[in-house]
Amino acid sequence: MTIEPPAPGEPRRPTGPRDPGDAWVIADDGTRYWGRFGAAGLLAWDPARGVDGSVLLQHRVAWSHHGGTWGIPGGARHEGEDAATGAVREAQEEAGVPDGAVRPLLSSLLDLEIWTYTTLVGEVVEPFEPVIADPESVALEWVPVADVDRRPLHPGFAASWPHLRAMLAMRAAPVLVVDAANVVGSVPDGWWKDRAGAAGRLRDRLDALAAAGLPGDVLELSGVAGVVGGGVVWYPDIVLVVEGAARAIPAADSRIRVVTAPGEGDDAIVAEVRRHRADGRAVITVTSDRGLVARVQDAGATTRGVRWLRDLLDAPAA
Predict the structure, then answer these.
(1) Phi then psi for 118, rounded to 5 degrees?
(2) 145 phi, psi to nearest 5 deg
(3) Residue 91, pLDDT above cutoff 60
(4) Which end of the chain is more exposed for a tag (fewer CB within 10 A), N or C?
């Protein structure tokens, strides 16, 4: 493997200093991959555009690598930059994607050992029209999912599209519904003195987990296309159901939706499962309460025990 800067006639940006990541990785067989620290791109999916939604595609300028093909906005990651941040930055630079317009659903990693490419799949939550913001694009278009295969696709995107389309068919990330009382009560950390505070600490740890995402092989949702398998990370919606004294959970800016049960927490958990299953979402309920396990399974949820979640929260990556 060797590292080479861009060749003459293959500029990356019209102005400004070049990042150390803007270089070719050359494999032993001569194959070139753009991005010394790997590369990343954003597959923005707008479910409101068409029957199956539409994805934002970029028609690449002729002088670029695989010029003339269609792919997704993306490029070399900067030194020290995580893949999701790099994907969003590149989409903003190349297509004018506004801040907060896309919510991450999942990421898919192609690992060639000498080089990696991460596709971040995001759902459009604030509609926008793309803007050609640099010389690397001939056009930017919202293309219906059913029509993507009709375009001359970038070879890398063409190889990954069937896999990505299968995951888009889920239409949303899985939902984790967490039984706060059961999880909090599983460790002797003084929760009985301050149940609201203990619930707040659990929420904060779940928030970090939601930001990092959960590997598809950890979720183990058998029978759901694209969820099981290495290289896929999902960013699930997490619902924390609290009851009793824990209803006084401190307020916080968090990705976690807290549901305060007006009565029994179990009833509120079952209601959450039924609501999300009615929307076609895959649901995992976290509890070790045998009676509740039976109820949520009847409502269509998959279940995981408290130890499963505790292991995730205690893992170094979390």
Answers:
(1) -110, 125
(2) -55, -40
(3) yes
(4) N
